[in-house]
Amino acid sequence: MDDKFRQHELKTWPEFFEPVFQGIKTFEIRKADRDFRVGDELWLREWDFAVGYTGRECWRLVTFVVSADMLKWDAHVLKTGYAILGIIESKAVTATSPATSATVTGL
Fold it and tell me: Phi then psi for 20, rounded to 5 degrees?
């Protein structure tokens, strides 16, 4: 796998999007199906089941990744196949869609 940082486009339910958007929630718990890495960017797009995408979005930089296999001393703390991502506001991306030069993984 290449060493470039990637951008991940992710659906985010309103009850989780709002605290991230406000800067209160500085982590994401996600299915670990994308090989998340420190330095990757998350393109979080608010998704409401009743209406679909709401048009609200924000970018966050991954600063730390914890996966279940890292927690050998207490494996039941995090379900296998999931990851906790430490995130901060990303200053690098200001566009409303991913940069064309980056690889964006799907929803």
Answer: -65, -45
1: in domain:
no
CA-CA distance, 60 to 32, in Å (whole number)?
17
How many domains is the chain built from?
1
Q: Which residue range is the domain that position 61 belongs to?
A: 7-94
| 3-state DSSP of 26-75 | CEEEEECCCCCCCCCEEEEEEEECCCEEEEEEEEEEEEEEEEHHHCHHHH
User: What pLDDT digit, counting tens, does each position of 1-25 carry?
Assistant: 456 779 999 999 999 999 999 999 9
Are 37 and 2 a contacting pair, CB within 8 Å? no
Please tell me the distance from the alpha carbon of residue 88 to that of residue 59, in angstroms, as a whole number. 9
CA distance 44 to 91: 14
Looking up residue 46, the CATH number of its domain turns out to be 2.30.130.30
pTM listed for this prediction: 0.78
